[in-house]
């Protein structure tokens, strides 16, 4: 995996870049992380009002979660807090956003768009057409990933499981003042985005908008949240399992700020990110 360890950066600290993604000309993007070997990337795309693209297909999987606004892809509307996984080669009749949108997006390779493609074959087993958080379906199994200790204070929703690799994308929602006690390691990359809430951990305190790309077997946690949290997780490289260990330091609500970042991003997180004002 040719991506740096990012644990963590606030998306708010990253600049918007115009035309940073070739398959989304005319839209701005914040690049969260990128694989220099495969071109795979994680980003937030900001579609302006009136944005539109014609029929096309992509040479990469496109997985996304709508943060704000709405978009229409292949005739399906995706509003705030909706999710989809569109496999590579899948033809789309178009993409548009009438009023604009901000969309957390993951591409499995360099997102090259080719016009047309009607009737093109693709792997329909890997398609997740549309899921909405507002359906209030929490069907995830913490125990299957070794996270059964979270079951009493959190809920999980499985968004997708890859039929070949076992990679999983899921949501977790935790209650306010949930506090962990042990540290974890996972044998695969764990990627997450903090959609809502505040989360304190061994490397500092994250606010909504925090992004992490964690390499396999990196020790992390325990975590706690005074607000409750909503997080989107992805495992990269296989199914997620968990090994538990005693922490190097006990949990604290006021941890030292020491995120792990590559040199080009470290200056952006030199200080703790401020808690959003409530009054």
UniProtKB/TrEMBL annotation:
* Residue intervals of the ChrR-like cupin domain: 144-234
Species = Falsiroseomonas algicola
* Annotated SUPFAM superfamilies: RmlC-like cupins
Q: What is this protein called?
A: DUF4437 domain-containing protein
Q: Could you tell me which Pfam families the record lists for this protein?
A: Cupin_7
Instruction: Show the coiled coil region(s).
Output: none
UniProt region (Disordered), positions on chain: 243-279
The record, for InterPro entries, names:
ChrR-like_cupin_dom, RmlC-like_jellyroll, RmlC_Cupin_sf
